[in-house]
Amino acid sequence: MEAFLLDRHLRPDEIDLLLDTEVGFGVQPLRAHVRECARCEAQLDQAREILCVLEDLPHFTPSVDFANRVMSQVQVFEPWHVAARNSVLRFMPSTRPARIVAGLATAASAGVMVAGGVWAVNRADMGLLLANVGLDEARIAANAALSDLILAAVGQTGLEVWAAGSPIVALSAGAGFIVAAGAVVVGLRALTAPRRRQSS
Amino acid sequence: MPTIDELVSLPDADVVRLAQEGRELAFRELVRRYERPVFSLVYRMVRDRETAEDLAQDAFIKVLNHIDRYSPEFKFSSWVFKIANNVAIDHLRRRRLDTVSMDGSPHASNAAEVEASAFDVSSDQESALDEMEARELGDAIEGAIGQLRPEYRACIMLRHVEGRSYEEIASMLDLPLGTVKTYIHRARHELRLALEGINE
After folding, report:
1. Consecutive sets of 10 residues in chain B, 200 residues long: mean pLDDT of each?
2. pTM score, two decimals?
3. ipTM of the modeled complex
């Protein structure tokens, strides 16, 4: 192999192998040839020099406001889980003892709330009874207020009709009252209209 | 919450995690770390400062607005470079600024088209050699990089300017490992040809 290489100069791909400092079976004869051949050695040196210059090429610098121009078009987005974690951390005390106290207080509050919830579920019947009592009280108060209103509007007779009658009778009475009131208003306007025309 | 000074010392993975949690300072830190390498890569791809700024900005906006999609199993830098390279390649394709390889256009379908589109280093009109002789080697390399096919350009810069491994480049550019090696080999060969006059 070595004798064969001495008969010709290195090809570009063989110079590349030496440039990449490859190690392997085929590289040793190439190195041996370069030691013997001044022309190939010069070619390899030239290639190495070019690579050195390439590797030393400087980086170019963009304009001063490059980063600001980039950032003006970048959407900085905080994911929900990070936002949630940060919110929790914001309330976290900075010192260790304070953090322990806060942890204990949180655990105690959570325990009380859970116990209250369990108790409320177990005592659902009592809750229902209390709710019914409350609803009855509210209904009685509402009825009393409505009665006062009817008494003031239509007098004792109307109130008695309201109290004795069915909802249909009560509704009919209410509708009759509205119709009668409307008729009175329209009648009064009709009476006053000719006088307004004459005066104008 | 880490301060800007603390962010500077954190590894990429931690800064990205903070950015995913919606920390604006982390976004800014990522821009600060990668604005120069990304801008340099894009600038060397498109060869126009204003366009490069716009494209690098687009790349960062894509990266940072989709930071929640970043998977930590990959290097963040690889993800950034991948997006920046895609943005630059898309731009070159849109604008049809595809520069021509010295070996002829990759789109040439027959020998005549390859010859017609080949970059002639000995041409009087485009005497790249003469032009390069007048420059320092670094400037000449910048010029020679500009003459490479965009795919070669991306590979050679990621390999030698950014110091990425072949495997990383293959992953970044969604190319088979063998293709990346071929591109880098051809790019080096073309650079050597283009710079022969400088070194002599």
Report:
1. 80 92 92 95 92 96 92 89 94 69 46 45 43 61 89 93 92 92 92 75
2. 0.62
3. 0.73
Q: Do A50 and B37 touch (CB under 8 A)?
A: no
Distance from CA of B17 to the nearest CA of A (A): 12
Q: Select the residue from A14, A57, A90 to test the B interface by mutation, using most B Cβ atoms within 10 A.
A: A57
C-alpha distance from residue B107 to each of B99, B111, B175, B177 (Å):
11, 11, 18, 22
pLDDT tens-digit series, residues B44-70? 999 899 999 999 999 999 999 999 888
- Residue A78 forms contact with B (CB below 8 Å): yes
Structure token pair of residue B19: 């950015």
With CB atoms and an 8 Å threshold, state whether B36 touches A63. Answer: no
Closest residue on chain B to A56 (Cα): B161
